[in-house]
Design goal:
Elements lengths: L2 H11 L8 H11 L4 E4 L5 E6 L6 E7 L4 E7 L5 E6 L11 E6 L2 E7 L9 H5 L9 E2 L5 H6 L7 E4 L4 E2 L5 E4 L2 H18 L6 E7 L7 H10 L3 E9 L21 E3 L9 H13 L5 E3 L9 H5 L8 E8 L7 E4 H17 L2 H7 L3
Parallel strand pairs: 3-12, 3-13, 13-16, 14-15
Antiparallel strand pairs: 1-2, 2-12, 4-5, 4-9, 6-7, 6-9, 7-8, 10-11, 11-17, 14-16
Helix pairs in contact: 1-5, 5-9, 7-9
Bound molecules: cobalt (II) ion.
Length: 360
């Protein structure tokens, strides 16, 4: 495992559901700490300031640390655990998955219970089980045993999935590439900037609570007050069977990071977007352009670009297959291209370039 794989393993396996980001925050802090001055907003987002030339513009790189997960909502007297979902889960990807309940006494492993086929009626087999009817089984036979294990109402629950390098050697399987992939890109770019001159001040920001409403983006952007923002995300690749309608755009794993032209909650600054595309072309860095307005889901960009009187913002995403599940897949080529591209873009963001972005 090389350095990037080690970083992705560490970050994706860490727990960090919205409002409970402590585990992943510690890791982000460990990696960003040596690169600049660390501070926090009061919701728990991490801000790393790396100063370049004195009076240059302030560039905010943002990636969210939180992942989708669950909270303990009820313990039945038979010892089963009901849960509330945090973030956008699809019920179909939950059954028989492993989870880790973070209790005050330590971690407790469980599985999301699924009736075996032997017990299913013909009608049940055809139906989607809804998460309200699911439960977590930690192997207890009474509520007393659950309590003894330390599990309490409102304890956070994290998906469990082991980071694995797949057969190609270039693709990785894990949970939470949305958005630990973005966090890893941000860390790698900030590491590079340490040895390079740049005409601006870089703020690498790992935000909290994106999956429940872009909350850490709102609070951290107030502290940073950037002149320009680049949001790093994981977005849904649709290059697998049945995922794209014929005649519509296909975003491929390994085709390069994705810059989005339009989404329901944000239109990127045209100049910043075009600068990114030009730099990619000049340096022969693969880049995919998403202009499909039907894709759902918001990003921190929605909150950041509306800060103050407006912040020129663009969203750059790693394409991820099976995003928001225990078994997501990303491609190393997309990671490397994103790091390469961002390094070049940040080096080009001087005062004039940034001022011109909002010269109407
Ligand atoms: Co995300």
């Amino acid at each position: 495992m090389d350095e990037v794989e080690g970083l992705l393993k560490e970050l994706t396996e860490a727990g960090g559901i919205p409002g409970h980001e402590a585990e992943v925050r510690q890791l982000v802090r460990k990696h960003l700490g040596p690169l600049g001055d660390i501070s926090y907003d009061r919701l728990g987002s991490v801000i790393c300031e790396k100063r370049g030339e004195a009076r240059g513009p302030k560039i905010m790189l943002a990636a969210h640390m939180d992942e989708i997960g669950f909270l303990v909502s009820h313990i039945t007297k038979e010892g089963f655990i009901r849960f509330a979902a945090l973030g956008g889960w699809w019920d179909q990807v939950l059954l028989a998955q492993r989870v880790r309940i973070k209790t005050a006494q330590g971690d407790v492993i469980g599985t999301i219970g699924a009736k075996p086929p032997h017990l299913l009626s013909d009608e049940e087999r055809r139906k989607l089980v809804e998460k309200d009817n699911m439960y977590i089984d930690i192997g207890a036979t009474s509520s007393d045993e659950v309590e003894k294990a330390g599990v309490r109402i409102a304890d956070p629950i994290v998906p469990v999935s082991e980071f694995t390098v797949l057969a190609s050697g270039r693709t990785y399987l894990s949970k939470a590439f949305d958005d630990r992939g973005g966090c890893a890109v941000m860390i790698a770019v900030t590491q590079r900037m340490v040895s390079l001159d740049h005409p601006n001040t870089l703020f690498a920001v790992a935000t909290v609570q994106e999956e429940v409403g872009l909350r850490g983006a709102k609070t951290s952007v107030t502290l940073v007050n950037p002149d320009v923002a680049i949001v790093l995300e994981g977005t849904a690749a649709n290059d697998m069977p049945g995922a794209s309608n014929e005649g519509h755009q296909v975003l491929r794993l390994g085709g390069g990071p994705v810059v989005t032209f339009y989404r329901g909650d944000m239109i990127p600054n045209r100049h910043l977007r075009d600068l990114m595309i030009d730099i990619a072309r000049k340096n022969a860095i693969p880049l995919q352009i998403r202009a499909d307005g039907r894709v759902r889901g918001g990003t921190d960009g929605a909150a950041i670009h509306l800060h103050g009187s407006g912040v020129p913002t663009v969203v750059l995403s790693l394409p991820v297959r099976y995003v928001h599940s225990h078994g997501a897949i990303m491609h190393r080529a997309d990671f490397d291209a994103a790091v390469e591209l961002l390094t070049e873009v940040i080096r080009g963001l001087d005062q004039k370039t940034v001022t011109d972005m909002t010269a109407w």
